[in-house]
Design a protein that fits this description.
single chain; 361 residues; 43% helix; 15% strand; disordered N terminus; binds ligand G3I
Length: 361
């Protein structure tokens, strides 16, 4: 049973403890050797389990295959993971009716070996599509058949190992309208309900999520997502929850109270919520590097506290866990440090902020 977190007090305590550069726990050495966890340092996954939530990260397949430190930290600190790219349409069905689950199977096997849940990501998105889709010309019936087969084949393949799916990703545009995509344009808005029904048919036990960014707090897009999933619930669509991606920056992030209010109104619809892709872009922060790390840490603390304050919030998943493997520098063509471990797999203030939030009762 999660307890209500006094957010103001917890933040004050956290800031007071953060005087040094090592984060809130003065007795903790700043650097941790990940080869052997020093006695007395509790992994984040154990702290999270005590608070009845999952904590995890998106997984870079190549890093998992080639970097022992990456695999060690992933398996020792976290109890849920999301394949960053290997369950997307372009990776799993690169050619029509030709499915490739080999990389994703390896990630799922790692999760099973480390007693981790898996978030399947993602069945329907406007991005990460193979060229046979983006360059193809399809009738509505043809595209419905293609999408149904894709969803049912992938969900069925993972029926015994993956029971959390981001079924539809980012279907709402930033202005709150339904995003234009091949799915919306050729099939129509009903592609969303159809996708959830097919995923449910393939695995009736799966927890099916709608996942999106920039709708974590309150505002136009958040309202549009709320109205979308409210309508799905009213139509009896088998939606289980909403994924709040939480791609934020030290210059912009939703307030803890807005996130709590949004989570609570989604919960009032009978839905669960998960933070699914958190990272904190720091490159636009005008402060000196040490302050940027503290700015980042406070945001991780705030959003974890928001999740802990709402019983319906089941999981806190980041989009990676080490600055050595983040999409942000590639996407922005600018160095960044958005995650709780640095490029040498040393915990940053953001790590200690998460630990602090999880320890607060
Ligand atoms: O694997 C190929 C490689 O063989 C090739 O040499 C290289 C250069 O073309 O591309 C590699 O594929 C890239 C892939 O990441 C793996 O690195 C794709 O081009 C690139 O588009 C892809 O970007 C991913 C992006 O989604 C699009 O799928 C990012 O890593 C990933 O972090 C990002 O994640 C999304 C979530 O799925 C949804 N929410 C937003 C989030 C950030 O954009």
């Amino acid at each position: 049973m999660k307890r209500t977190v006094c957010l103001c007090l917890s933040l004050v305590l956290f800031l007071a403890a953060c005087g040094g550069t090592t984060g809130p726990n003065a007795t903790r050495t700043e650097s941790r050797t990940v080869s052997t966890p020093p006695a007395g340092i509790t992994p984040l996954r154990d702290l999270a389990q005590k608070r009845a939530i999952f904590i995890g990260a998106a997984v870079d397949y190549d890093a998992l295959q080639n970097e022992p430190q990456y695999a060690y930290v992933l398996g020792s600190e976290f109890n849920i993971l999301t394949p960053e790219n290997m369950m997307k349409f372009d990776a799993t069905e690169p050619e029509p009716n030709v499915f490739n689950f080999v990389p994703a199977d390896a990630i799922v096997k790692f999760a099973q070996q480390h007693h981790m849940r898996v978030r399947g990501h993602t069945l329907v998105w406007y991005n990460a599509l193979p060229t046979w889709i983006t360059n193809g010309t399809f009738s509505r019936d043809q595209l419905i058949a293609i999408l149904k087969q894709h969803i049912m084949t992938e969900v069925s393949h993972y029926r015994s190992s993956v029971n959390i799916w981001d079924v539809v990703n980012e279907a709402v545009a930033d202005d709150g309208t339904l995003r234009q995509s091949i799915w919306e344009r050729v099939i129509g808005p009903n592609y969303i309900d159809m996708a959830f029904s097919w995923a449910h048919e393939a695995n009736p036990q799966a927890h099916l999520f709608y996942n999106d960014y920039a709708g974590e707090g309150l505002g136009t897009k958040s309202d549009a997502i709320y109205n979308l999933v409210k309508g799905m619930r009213q139509r009896g669509v088998p939606i289980y929850g909403v994924g709040l991606q939480m791609h934020v920056s030290t210059q912009y992030y939703p307030s803890t109270q807005d996130v709590i209010t949004n989570m609570q109104r989604l919960a009032a619809l009978g839905l669960k919520v998960q933070i699914t892709e958190m990272d904190v872009k720091t490159q636009d922060d005008p402060n000196p590097p040490a302050q940027r790390l503290q700015d980042e840490a406070q945001i991780y603390h705030a959003e974890m506290s928001a999740c802990l304050a709402v019983t319906a919030c089941e999981a806190f998943v980041m989009w990676g866990f080490t600055d050595a493997h983040s999409w942000i520098p590639i996407f922005t063509n600018h160095a960044d440090a958005p995650l709780p471990f640095d490029t040498n797999y040393q915990p940053k203030p953001a790590f200690f902020a998460l630990e602090q939030a999880l320890k607060e009762q």
